[in-house]
User: Fold these one by one.
Assistant:
Number 1:
Amino acid sequence: MAQILIVEDEENILKILSDFLRFEGFEVLTAQDGQAGVERAVGGRPDLIVLDIMLPRKNGYDVCRELREKGLLVPIVILTAKGEEIDKVLGLELGADDYMTKPVALKELNARIRALLRRAEWLKQEEKLASVEFGDVKVDFQRHEVTRRGKTLPLSTMEVGLLHYMVKHRGEVLTRERILNEVWGYEKFPTTRTIDTHVLNLRRKLEQNPNRPKYLLTVHGAGYRFAG
Ligand code: CA
């Protein structure tokens, strides 16, 4: 049974989410502030985290960044209040995997959680490369650690998965459809646009000049290719 950590300070929302996810068959852990969230995530090693942004003691962005810096490759779904659109970009920078706006549509949350768990499981099963270095970036796939000039970068679960796939098939032209099938697996949510967004995010994090990438290359009319 997958274990889900919910970090949410509003008790009524926490109760609604926990009751719903328990009913759906998940084991639920909870934390009511950011610091407790980090501790439970590190100590309990949940399979997925549902993370509110506005939290006492440490906000959701800091929690997300800290967990990625500690090398936790757990999928993280961020909950944002209405009108926090701009923060979505910040969340992506910090390594979140998905977003939902409050009030949370429970059925959709359930579907997204299951999709993320399937992907994470998929990534776990794939035979991992040990590590790779390119430019000023070092990636330790075993420890889920990505560093650039010695500084840890917060990558989301799927960013690490995509990077691993591209490096593993370095030199090959990878179509969006192939990436979608082999990294995301079968599911209905993502479209090929999802791949483009993830590649752009990886470039922003890993390339010296994201507009003129040297490693994560576009192959016009075809897809992407890792050079390095
Ligand atoms: Ca809150």
Number 2:
Amino acid sequence: MQEIAINDLNGFRYLPGYFDRASQQELLDDVRSVVSQAPLYQPVMPKTGKPYSVKMSNCGPLGWVSDINGYRYQQQHPDTKTPWPDIPSRLTSLWETLAPDAPPAEACLINFYKAKARMGLHQDRDERTFNAPVVSVSLGDTATFRIGGLSRKDPTKSFRLQSGDVVVLGGDARLAFHGIDRVLAGTSTLLKNGGRINLTLRRVNEAE
Ligand code: MD6
Ligand code: FE
């Protein structure tokens, strides 16, 4: 496994090719099992109610949701009102490897992108603690990931995230602005009908 330096934010890690094809397939099977219990739903933005271009689900004791009232973590799926499925063991292992000093992950957000979907520049700051990193896994089509600094106005750099790549936002990079400019359709054969899945593991609450 190699590690590539993109910026000088301490705590930002880009680990291309972290998961080989067989592991990507296993992770995809895990995601399929989760969404069979907690179906992908269509989130909308607070205030405007405008739909996101991505669909979402979660696993873990908490899930990140966005609706007309705001962003928050909650224990139930917004449509089915049932608890989120457990985080699959392959992902808890990833967390233990890449966030060894952090308490267990409490939420794993699943983002599903069709060809035209994107994710605007944002910070992950709805958690009650920023001591733990956010660990992300990409599956399926390649996407252009953009990362800046701690201010929205800071200069940004973009690079491609391929299936099996892992990104960690920890330390000084925990609150860095980042987003997905676009998905490059037809760049992976992992998902039969194309598209991209991104998994982000998070700690929400301070350790007990
Ligand atoms: C995505 N990723 O890759 C969006 N957030 O689809 C994120 O928003 C993200 O990759 C926090 C940490 C790593 C990430
Ligand atoms: Fe994010």
